[in-house]
Amino acid sequence: MKNTITVGLLGLGTVGSGVIEILRDHKERIEHKTGCDVTIKSVLVNDLSKPRELPADTQLTDRSEDITRDPEIDVIVEVMGGIDHTLTILLEAIEHGKHIVTANKDLVAQHGEQLFEACQKHKCDLYYEASVAGGIPIIRSIMDGLSSDRIRKMMGIVNGTTNYIMTKMAQDGVDFDSVLKEAQDLGFAEADPTADVDGLDAARKMTILSILGFSMPYSLEDVDIKGIRGISSDDITYAEELGYRIKLIGIAENDHNGVSVSVEPTLLPIQHPLSSVNDEYNAVYVHGDAVGETMFYGPGAGKLPTATAIVADLIAVLKNIRLGTTGTAYVQPQFPKQVKTKKEQLTKKYIRLHVDDQAGMLNDLTNIFAEYDISFDQFIQRPTEQEGERELMLVTHRVSEEDFEKARQDLESLTSVRSIDSIFRVEGGE
Ligand code: NAP
Ligand code: HSE
Q1: Which-ligand-closest: CA of 158?
Q2: For atom 43 of ligand 1, which residue has the closest CA?
Q3: 42 contact partners, CB below 8 Å, separation of at least 6
Q4: Which residue intervals of the chain bear CATH 3.40.50.720?
Q5: pLDDT tens digit string along 171-220?
Q6: Mean pLDDT, range 124-139, rounded to an integer
Q7: Which residue, 307, 246, 340, is CA-closest to 40?
Q8: Mean pLDDT, to the nearest integer, of 392-399?
Q9: What is the pLDDT confidence band of residue 2, given thresholds at 50, 70 and 90?
Q10: Comparing C-alpha atoms, which of 83, 91, 44, 48 is closest to residue 64?
Q11: Per UniProt, where does L-homoserine bind (predicted)?
């Protein structure tokens, strides 16, 4: 057994520099836990001319093969992001017997199976705790802590950037663009922040959690995704009036009809524990048959929280190397994929619309909802600054996605409906 483990680091941005810092500051603790000294031999970057702080014996390169083919390197820590190019690099590394630790949810959500197959073939480890909810050990909790239970539902605030943006918009009335810039400066946002804002980043994380939690090969393409661009300050205010807070929530449910996964702005009762998760913090609520309700909370993005998860994975690899058990952690999904139809997906809905203030208008509206057996839980109406116009805010009881969509189309065709401004999912408050 080697007493020194040599690491190749792919990427030296926000997370990569955190990994170097933790390995330096917690060197003795890591050595005590694993019996190994960890050294970073080489670091891959794009731009060799940027000024960097590196340990004395670490070299920089812009050629991935300097790392993937280096026989001295045992483990690759991938914190550079990207999908296709990064997949090629990691597959080459695995072929050369390297274990992989990655924070890359884009890659794991899309090509996890291919990576796992390659790892099994070459007896290599693949760990990715940092890919979901940054510093929260949610993957270990699902894989180990809750492994004896059957998980029915997971609800997560799993994107730090959007939670930061929505917190600042709700609490300080700051406008969307300036608060997005702040989240970028703080290192939470992706290189292309549209993945955060449009819900794709959260969808990738919910795909990973669903595969693990439900032991089913769920695909990113099956996730219903809506981002936060459609939320107005009016919606935030009205939601509060109705007793709710709006958050971008990933919801994964598993029942006898199969699995549904969505990421969308959702109204949660103000007293729901997820409603008070603010700023870049993440939380994942997990409901299991036996355990009941559990919730995991912590920083979901940022340099040191994410690097903590990476180094914890590195420690797991070192222990496996010591025990001779590398490449054995992967468990195939137990069940075939079963995706719920729109008819089987039942949710409450919030809808805000502007209508003509005329006799019979409400009657037309309720007739449409009655046709699809949709009843109301809450209802507010008020005049607007426009002559002859009223604004309506409705919360329905549970309705199938299919029936609600039909009712929405019928509403749109009513001449007395001037605009349908927002439609959001509503959780709880039954
Ligand atoms: P970042 O700050 O943009 O850093 C990326 C690093 O990778 C940079 O050092 C860059 O080189 C290097 N790089 C990018 N593409 C490269 C290429 N094709 N060849 C060589 N080097 C390349 O990114 P980050 O925020 O640290 O995120 C890294 C990964 O962690 C991403 O997968 C992200 O989704 C994930 N993650 C991030 C967070 C977070 O809070 N930031 C949390 C969880 C997971 P240069 O320095 O030369 O530009
Ligand atoms: N951009 C991601 C977020 C980073 O804001 O949550 C952590 O995965």
Answers
A1: 2
A2: 134
A3: 8, 9, 58, 59, 60, 61, 66, 67, 70, 73
A4: 4-134+303-323
A5: 888 888 889 999 999 988 888 899 999 999 999 999 999 999 999 999 99
A6: 97
A7: 307
A8: 96
A9: low
A10: 44
A11: 190
Residue 77 and residue 10 in contact, taking contact as beta carbons nearer than 8 Å: yes
Average predicted confidence (pLDDT) for the chain: 95
Which ranges of 160-228 does DSSP label H, i.e. alpha helix?
160-172, 176-185, 194-197, 200-214
Instruction: Enumerate the CATH 3.30.360.10 domain ranges in the chain, comma separated.
Output: 138-299
Q: Name all residues whose Cβ lies below 6 A of ligand 1.
A: 11-16, 44-47, 50, 79-82, 85, 103-104, 130, 134, 187-188, 190-191, 301-302, 306
Strands (E) located in 19-86: 37-44, 59-61, 75-78
- Superfamily, domain 138-299: Dihydrodipicolinate Reductase; domain 2 (3.30.360.10)
For residues 68-91, average pLDDT: 98
Please check if 360 is assigned to a binding site.
no
- Give yes or no for residue 299 CB within 6 A of ligand 2: no
The Cα 293–Cα 296 span in angstroms is 10
Among the atoms of ligand 1, which is closest to the Cα of residue 80? 7
**What is the CATH code of the structural domain delimited by 346-426?**
3.30.70.260
